[in-house]
Write a structure and sequence with these properties.
Layout (H helix, E strand, L loop, with lengths): L20 E6 L4 E6 L6 E7 L2 E8 L8 E6 L7 E6 L11 E3 L24 E12 L2 E9 L9 E7 L6 E7 L6 E10 L13 E10 L3 E9 L7 E2 L9 H5 L4 E9 L4 E8 L2 E7 L6 E7 L6 E7 L2 E10 L4 E7 L4 E9 L1 E2 L2 E6 L10 E7 L8 E2 L1 E2 L3 E8 L2 E8 L7 E11 H10 L5 E9 L4 E6 L2 E6 L4 E8 L12 E9 L7 E8 L3 E6 L4 E6 L9 E5 L5 E11 L5
Parallel strand pairs: 8-27, 24-39
Antiparallel strand pairs: 1-6, 2-5, 2-7, 3-4, 3-6, 8-9, 9-10, 10-11, 12-13, 13-14, 14-15, 16-17, 17-18, 18-19, 20-21, 21-22, 22-23, 25-26, 26-28, 26-29, 29-30, 31-41, 32-37, 32-41, 33-34, 33-40, 34-35, 35-36, 37-38, 38-39
């Protein structure tokens, strides 16, 4: 949950709000459709059904030309009359609102000019923090912070998507909506196999979401909701919140982002919650009543606590505490208290935040699979931001101690189309091959052996990822000027953009794995010891992937593999 911009959100609880006009709608279709635009002043909309406020949100309603349409699923209210209230001054806009069973404006969805083709993005609206990653009965569930009604941040719902293979995703209706307690911010999901909560009503195991709500007058509280139909519909616990009044006790406005899991050792639910520039551990028998166990200072927001084997050995495990920007600790955990042994470390750089890993992965699989939020904006589109490609996290022993590694899941092979495996090649040979490949979507793997270069770069369109061996430093650099790709020693000017110092990495042979999509690129270095997530130039002057090395420098490209990728959208 990104608290820094919460203050921009207006809530409908203001008693002195003056409404411009009421609009009555007899609901006889599945969707109510709203004309939206990206620029202008937000209007407040409330929808009452049977006298109860069922929906409220801010939206920039189009007054001239519609940039895109957004929708609200009201199918469960068919036959009822909705009263729509809005404070918009130009009431003619309300006449554009209409009902439908189809959404014809989505006929080209997932085919838009800047739509990511290898990474998940929403049909409409803003998207940020990953929430509630959980596996159940053959489906990977990915919830996320979502504004369904606009391109910018706000109106925090829990969006929902499912996949059977981690690469092809299907967007489902919103899981959690704002209510009288506030908007639905970040949290996690568990499968309550033992029905400790008592929420189970059918044959399926009950899925329970634990999340933060925020209200400008009430503050931050921890709530739960449950689903008995594999996450398709949700019921909020009638006695919410399950954790409240922490702000008074702590004299701090920071208490949010609950991450919950079942601890086999103590046979209790465990929650790690961000509080007071640190994390508090709670335990529970039933997901409803929570006991504070301990607190330790770490880092800001979106914590997660999970166990990983070291070097794949199930008899040697460590517990990782992970934070919003990729910082992590390594230590021990007894179910109630965390003991740090090493860290802080960081393995990722770029526009990447608020990652989470899947709970309930089957033991026969055993992987710890992560997805993060790539805050890469997509201008002039009806959607905004992207989720990073799923990766597997592992702990491995390095000369500097135990570190976490991060590599794309093997399911990426499902997207492979045409394959090129030239093996060990020179820079000239590699560039000749890459120039012949005309696609935006690529998966590239290789080892780069530095024989005599002070530095080298990998050009991707109008930018270069440059590695300086002397300083052991990566920079992401905008290119300008002309390049001669025919020559190994091509000259190019550099304009610094981003950089990161890597004290653990130095080596003359470094492995690389790169995933290229329309709007982003992900670079996994040294088998995922370090990861860079970056925006990709949307309208490049130079459309190319090429290796570059300075004058008199020599590098070798070993084990080169290049795969053209198909779209994840079916």
């Amino acid at each position: 949950m990104r608290k820094t911009i919460i203050s921009t959100l207006l809530f409908c609880c203001l008693a002195n709000l003056v409404w411009a006009e009421d609009l009555k709608i007899k609901i006889d279709k599945k969707f109510i459709n709203f004309p939206a635009t990206s620029d202008g002043d937000e209007s407040l909309v409330e929808i009452f059904i049977d006298g109860k406020k069922e929906f409220y949100f801010d939206i920039i309603l189009d007054e001239d030309e519609t940039d895109f349409w957004v929708f609200l699923d009201v199918s469960k209210f068919k036959g009822k009359t909705a009263i729509l209230k809005s404070n918009i001054e130009n009431t003619d806009v309300l006449k554009k609102i209409y009902q439908s069973d189809e959404r014809k404006y989505l006929k080209n969805v997932y085919k838009e000019k800047y739509r990511p083709q290898v990474h998940f993005s929403t049909m409409r609206g803003w998207m940020n923090d990953v929430n509630g990653l959980v596996y159940y009965d053959g489906e990977y569930h990915m919830f996320h912070q979502h504004n369904p009604y606009g391109w910018g941040w706000g109106n925090m719902h829990w969006g929902h998507a499912v996949s059977t293979d981690l690469v092809h995703w299907k967007q489902l209706p919103e899981a959690l909506y704002p209510d009288h307690t506030g908007t639905a911010f970040s949290g996690s999901c568990v499968i309550d196999y033992k029905n400790t909560s008592g929420f189970k009503t059918g044959e399926n195991d009950v899925m329970v979401a634990i999340y933060t709500t925020w209200h400008r007058q009430i503050g931050e509280r921890q709530n739960i909701a449950y689903s008995n139909d594999k996450g398709r519909t949700w019921t909020k616990y009638e006695n919410n919140p399950v954790i409240s009044d922490r702000e008074k006790k702590l004299k701090s406005g920071n208490t949010r982002d609950p991450n919950v899991f079942w601890h086999k050792g103590i046979k209790k639910w465990v929650m790690i919650l961000f509080e007071r520039i640190g994390n508090t551990i709670f335990t529970s028998d039933d997901l409803k009543t929570w006991k504070e166990e301990s607190h330790f200072e770490t880092f800001w927001e979106c914590p997660e606590l999970f166990e990983l084997p070291v070097d794949g050995n199930p008899n040697n495990t460590k517990w990782v505490v992970y934070g919003v920007n990729g910082d992590y600790l390594i230590g021990d955990f007894d179910g109630r208290k965390y003991t740090k042994q090493a860290g802080l470390f960081n393995y990722i750089n770029g526009p990447f935040l608020a990652a989470q890993t899947f709970e309930n992965i089957p033991e026969k699989d055993g992987r710890r699979i992560q997805i993060g939020w790539g805050y890469i904006q997509t201008d002039d589109m009806p959607f905004n931001c992207v989720m990073t490609f799923p990766t597997e996290l592992t702990l491995r022993t390095t000369p500097n101690g135990i570190r976490m590694f991060n590599e794309p899941v093997e399911e990426i092979k499902k997207l492979h189309k045409k394959t090129y495996r030239p093996g060990n090649v020179t820079v000239r040979e590699a560039n000749r091959l890459l120039r012949k490949i005309d696609t935006e979507l690529l998966h590239i793997k290789f080892e780069l052996e530095n024989l005599s270069a002070i530095n080298y770069g990998i050009q991707i369109d109008d930018a270069v990822i440059k590695y300086d061996l002397k300083d052991n430093n990566f920079t992401y650099t905008k290119l300008r000027g002309r390049r001669d790709h025919e020559h190994q020693g091509a000259e190019f000017e550099l304009e610094p953009f981003k950089s990161k110092y890597l004290p653990d990495l130095a080596s003359n042979i470094i492995s690389y794995e790169i995933i290229l999509d329309r709007t982003s690129l992900e670079v996994f270095i040294d088998k995922g010891r370090y990861t860079i997530v970056l925006p990709r130039t949307l309208n490049p002057v130079n459309k190319a992937v090429q290796f570059m090395v300075g004058e008199d420098g020599v590098i070798k490209i070993n084990g080169l593999e290049v795969y053209e990728l198909e779209s994840i959208w079916r």
